[in-house]
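Quick one, T. Sequence first:
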Amino acid sequence: MPFLHSDPDILPLLRASALSLLILLPAALPSHAQDALEQPDPDTPLGIADSVIVFGNTKTKTYVILDEMTLKCGSVVTRSAIEFDRNRIYSLGLFTHVDILFDTLTTPRVLLVNVGERWHILPLLMFGFRDGDPKKVYFGGGVLHNNFQGKNQKLLAALTLGYDPSVTVSYQDPLLNRNERLYFAASLSYSRIRNRSILEAEKDGDFRENHYNAEATVGKRFTLYQWAGITLGASFVRVSAYAPGRTVTPGGKDAFPKAAVQYVLDSRDLGEYAMRGSYVGALALYNGFGISGISFGRLTVDLRTYIPLSSRLSLVGRGYTTLSAGSQVPSYGHVYFGYSDRIRGYYKTVFEGENLIGGTAELRFTLLQPRVVHVDVITLPPEFSHLRFGLSLALFTDTGLAWFRSGQPALEDFVSGYGGSVDFLLPYSFVVRLGVGISDLGQRQFILDIRRPI
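Structure tokens:
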């Protein structure tokens, strides 16, 4: 369950030495000419599961896996349901491979779930790019326990240097109370951020923002796909060079409490690169509550759909907006295209405002279904002997607009782009997209995108 200020860049993009094999292993991929043969209907019933048996999980509690599955004892089993559950289990981020087999020859009929576990205690050698920008290199280290007590709990302590250095300590428990299906998360963090506001930099030059955050979240998982939570926390922001608008409080220091309510519905099959399902996210956040004159908030809504057109083709759509409310919004509360959210075709162009709205459509075609390749290298630990690869093509179009409350958005102010990419699904949930974007003005740009796709 996400924190309000969790930074996706804080998780390492390079997990040990496995990723050094990414370019070296294509010759190891088996031939898939048989995929061209006509496949049976994936929704044809195969039978009813009389029992579900999980094995291969030496550390992970069995219920962590079972709770993520739609197939239970008494369920009608189909190939599509098996594939959906396999991807859902893999999306937990705990396993190198997941295999589900349905034994229709014996009675009772058994659904077998075989998993191979990843390393759970990871000494992190961290390297990556802030906002997916190769010019914004960060590096560092830390320790991640990815599966504390075998319950999918996360313990993280990390230090990064380079672009926007940071220190983070966090804990997540997705099932604090299994009977009530409660979850809990808490974090302490510090980050020294280079100013992102183009408007502020043009006024008085560049500056730094020092952000200190503490927050805790308690929530409830209502169903396999739905959960909601309440977050309470506090923030302290100090700018290196004060000017009106950079902080609400004169002198360049803002300290304030914050509270938020969040709702998520997530029925996607594969979190790192979905081909079916949907996602609905809504977050209402308020800062300050009038303390020291600080009183501003934000409503964010994110809607996504993944419509399978065939076994290899999927139509993806996303619409999202974030709207500000309250009194003065300081520059550190502005929103942007050009950082975490981007418009391909204007990939490196920054658009700034207090509000934004955007949309994306993609057509994804699977060239190589994600599958596990066994690497028989004696020097590799067993957790790295099974590596998962996939390959897809995508056509996309993006559009968006950022604006300030002092102005009025208009259709002619939207900027748009379109293009295509080759998407590599790599081990340990790592995705690389190589593509070309074309703006609505006809300008082309090469795009190397290492952010997680929508």
